[in-house]
């Protein structure tokens, strides 16, 4: 990945920059805590951490407006926190407790919030892509100007259903932003072993969908690209593709020994390209925050995350008769 080009005077207010720092740090600390709880046996099933990729969702959320929708894969905790879902409810769901977003019955990959327009959480690779187009269709049908952010990985981008979706989304000019979170691996398979071309942002060309590549370790670059894509979709011009180059620091899931890449590769990325360090530098160098200010934010975020773990541990397991609820939708 090329070195970051940070402009001397980035186009961002100190308040917005500080908010980015907070939002990304919340995701990172939350995920670290989830990793700990998993290690302690308090989280069962699958658990895919988002550490390293924080700038993608935080940058794009900064481009979203109230009522816009989002849908993603199983690597979803960051997306939930970034759209304003309650860390307590997310952590309690991870630990399978009653206070969780799916009453403890869904776990890491199956959480939803209609209030925050978050439509999951999908464990089947690529399955959320046509669903995302469907969400965008519903907005077009209703005649509002909402946009749907449909996130998927570089691995998912090789699936057939993605291209069927591109075709229909372009044909019907649906207001959907296809966000390819290219973290360069699909489980243990490096992109160069599975993908015929190094860049995937132009894969919509055959359908007339514009696309661009974005530095996903630079939250400002992500926000700017997101704003451009949102403008395109909201003005009725149809779908847009953003290939956001990012990197996951942890294994594919908690059970991945990560033997397919070197430790040096990971530490180089952490040391040279970390998105949170980048914003921290901008804040300090721009004179917007002192080391003390940043420490205070750190402390505050840690307290929120600890409280979510506490809430999760204290929340009871779902009652047995919950086995029979939430199976069929109520017909209204
Ligand atoms: C249809 C389907 N095939 C295979 C799997 C197993 N699987 C889970 S994640 C994954 C890799 C996906 O990689 P990518 O799309 O790059 O997303 P990332 O995990 O890197 O975020 C695979 C093959 C699955 N869950 N669903
Ligand atoms: Mg991937």
Automatic annotation (TrEMBL):
Reaction equations catalysed: N(6)-[(R)-lipoyl]-L-lysyl-[protein] + pyruvate + H(+) = N(6)-[(R)-S(8)-acetyldihydrolipoyl]-L-lysyl-[protein] + CO2
Highest taxon of the lineage: Bacteria
Enzyme type, top EC level: oxidoreductase
CDD domains in alphabetical order: TPP_E1_PDC_ADC_BCADC
ATP-binding recorded as keyword: no
Cofactor(s) for this UniProt protein: thiamine diphosphate
Example GO BP: pyruvate decarboxylation to acetyl-CoA
Residues of the Dehydrogenase E1 component domain: 23-319
InterPro entries referenced in this protein's UniProt entry, alphabetically: DH_E1 (IPR001017), PDH_E1_Alpha_Subunit (IPR050642), Pyrv_DH_E1_asu_subgrp-y (IPR017597), THDP-binding (IPR029061)
Summary of the function given for this chain in its UniProt record: The pyruvate dehydrogenase complex catalyzes the overall conversion of pyruvate to acetyl-CoA and CO(2). It contains multiple copies of three enzymatic components: pyruvate dehydrogenase (E1), dihydrolipoamide acetyltransferase (E2) and lipoamide dehydrogenase (E3).
Protein name, entry field: Pyruvate dehydrogenase E1 component subunit alpha
Organism per entry: Antarctobacter heliothermus
């Amino acid at each position: 990945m090329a070195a970051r080009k940070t402009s001397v005077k980035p186009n961002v207010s100190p308040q917005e920059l500080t908010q980015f720092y907070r939002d990304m740090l919340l995701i990172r600390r939350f995920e670290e805590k989830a990793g700990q709880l998993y290690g302690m046996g308090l989280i069962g099933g699958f658990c895919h951490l988002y550490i390293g990729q924080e700038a993608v969702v935080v940058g794009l959320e900064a481009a979203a407006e109230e009522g816009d929708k989002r849908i993603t894969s199983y690597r979803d905790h960051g997306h939930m926190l970034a759209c304003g879902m309650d860390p307590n409810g997310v952590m309690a769901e991870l630990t399978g407790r009653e206070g969780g977003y799916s009453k403890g019955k869904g776990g890491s990959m199956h959480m939803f919030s209609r209030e925050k327009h978050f439509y999951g959480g999908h464990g089947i690779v690529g399955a959320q892509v046509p669903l995302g187009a469907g969400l965008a269709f519903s907005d077009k049908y209703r005649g509002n100007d909402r946009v749907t952010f449909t996130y998927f990985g570089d691995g998912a981008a090789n699936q057939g259903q993605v291209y069927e979706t591109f075709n229909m989304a372009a044909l019907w000019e649906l207001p959907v932003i296809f966000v390819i979170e290219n973290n360069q691996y699909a489980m243990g398979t490096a992109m160069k072993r599975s993908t015929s071309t190094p860049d995937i942002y132009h894969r919509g060309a055959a359908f007339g969908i514009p696309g661009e590549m974005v530095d996903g370790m630079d939250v400002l670059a992500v926000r700017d690209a997101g704003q451009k894509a949102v403008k395109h979709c909201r003005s009725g011009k149809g779908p847009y593709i953003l290939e956001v180059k990012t990197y996951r620091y942890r294994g594919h899931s908690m059970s991945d020994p990560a033997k397919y890449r070197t430790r040096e590769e990971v530490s180089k990325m952490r040391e040279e390209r970390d998105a949170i360090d980048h914003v921290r530098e901008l804040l300090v160098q721009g004179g917007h925050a002192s080391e003390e200010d940043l420490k205070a934010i750190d402390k505050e975020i840690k307290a929120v995350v600890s409280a979510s773990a506490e809430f999760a541990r204290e929340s009871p397991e779902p009652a047995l008769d919950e086995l029979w609820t939430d199976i069929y939708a109520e017909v209204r």
